[in-house]
């Protein structure tokens, strides 16, 4: 397979492809000319601007777009252009010589990790951007760690090297302190950051192009020594000869990158173009092709019985492709964006989604250039392509064409748990179904978006990773799908219970001139252990309440429990025993016993030491280790109980605590203030506990039990 063409912008097949003796040889040669690269890191580090610079330097576009003007290839969405920030991963590609580079530009805000993390599944190399004016920010640390966990080759790109006040020597020291001494510069800034000088292929600087700090010779020596360490033969040769030609070190270099023994650092200014051409050379000459990186971990089977396997980077094998992104356009429909790991796909290929029984036929195969879809006729291992209008495709699905691959899936990513909630209600009556359908589409695009229909509060609640995440969702609802909603904080799922046994009775008697209503119920309420729920016991003897009316008694009790007695919240953990009652042969009806049971239950509850319960959650907070004291102090002020702390490495720590859910409403904003945006947390429901007396009094204040009669 030759590299798929990109419309009129693609170069003609290289001579190596044309001279290959067989189609299979041509396909294998093309694989070695593919690079896949995700630009990751903090917001405002210049990922989108660098994407534009790379596209322009390669000749893919005539002039670089501008984030402020909203003219970039990657940030094409209306909301992205207005906010001047990437909100979703954008896929692009370029040619540098005969090498095709699949380039992914990812969001830098932590609220959009549901977009940036899956990009790591589609590439061999994660390029972590560091803003030279800001240093190593928390998002750079997190993405570096995640990329390391996935076994990706890693590259550090230092951007804005020409900014006033930048001290590149101090910046490199900070990078090495954060990520390890294996971070070594492939090039160095020179002439005040207006250019860079190569340190890999050229062991000595050219006159007039000396580095701004250190020296080319010293950087070259450090690189070679680091690389040869992975190969004993080269170590011996290096010790004997004093140097090894860098062009002979390709294999050990790739091994050092795979093993994380070397994390190259390159310097650029995306705005001025300094170092951009050299970065293209680094990508093409030094970064891994699909056969040289660590192969992603696939699992065959489900659960504990699943076995580890790896795809064969073979264009002639059966297909294995992973859907790392789903986009749903209200006009175009669903677009599945996938990385091919094994085999080849063409229009008319028959593929199966996961363990589905029915295959779908690929109608059109696209490469993406931002919002533009460029049709291609063939794609193989290493290529990133898209298929449209296949309803069965979902995020994280594996596409294949062999029955034995039905139960293969990629080792799952560990996503942050969405905990920032917002209750939504359609502003226009009748839009409830429309809202549900649109939210389902948005959740299909974003693995960090969770939609919940809360039966206990009758609310539709959407959970995201932060305030910005949900604000963007509301804008998409309004601008893209024309759905207007009212919002409110989610209601806390308080409950009521009782603390002691009590009895009560109530006679319901109503005469309206014709047939009357009569029913009398005597019952007892007893507390049950927390979480036991509800028990209903019938001890009526002698037909005091005919058996036909016992279900009506239970219905009345359940209605009273659902409505609440002292604060309007459902009653839980109670046993209700019907002891006795009376009926009338003419006037007794089901409604009479429903009403009598409701009133008897309310009366008994009021005598049984009623208490309000609140949900208590386990909270796990990841934040810089130096700020743990501030976080634990803040939790204590929120009625929280710290249950332990753990050191995670790389300057991070984890706090495990338990706290009332009501005290953590909007907690991400507070955590952002404590950690300068570096903290994240997850919540897991633990149990319900009684609220403090002052809180119970506040909840009871103003509550009046509704009389349905």
Automatic annotation (TrEMBL):
One Gene Ontology MF term: GTPase activity
Disordered: region residues: 1-28
Keyword Transmembrane: no
InterPro entries: EF-G-like_DII, EFG_II, EFG_III/V, EFG_IV, EFG_V, EFG_V-like, P-loop_NTPase, Ribosomal_Su5_D2-typ_SF
Protein name: Elongation factor G
Domain Tr-type G: 32-291
Alphabetical GO biological process terms: ribosome disassembly
Gene3D superfamilies registered for this protein in UniProt: 3.30.230.10, 3.30.70.240, Elongation Factor G (Translational Gtpase), domain 3, P-loop containing nucleotide triphosphate hydrolases, Translation factors
Function (record text): Catalyzes the GTP-dependent ribosomal translocation step during translation elongation. During this step, the ribosome changes from the pre-translocational (PRE) to the post-translocational (POST) state as the newly formed A-site-bound peptidyl-tRNA and P-site-bound deacylated tRNA move to the P and E sites, respectively. Catalyzes the coordinated movement of the two tRNA molecules, the mRNA and conformational changes in the ribosome.
Bias type Low complexity, positions: 10-26
Pfam families linked: EF-G_D2, EFG_C, EFG_III, EFG_IV, GTP_EFTU
Keywords for the protein's UniProt record, in alphabetical order: Elongation factor, GTP-binding, Nucleotide-binding, Protein biosynthesis
SUPFAM superfamilies: EF-G C-terminal domain-like, P-loop containing nucleoside triphosphate hydrolases, Ribosomal protein S5 domain 2-like, Translation proteins
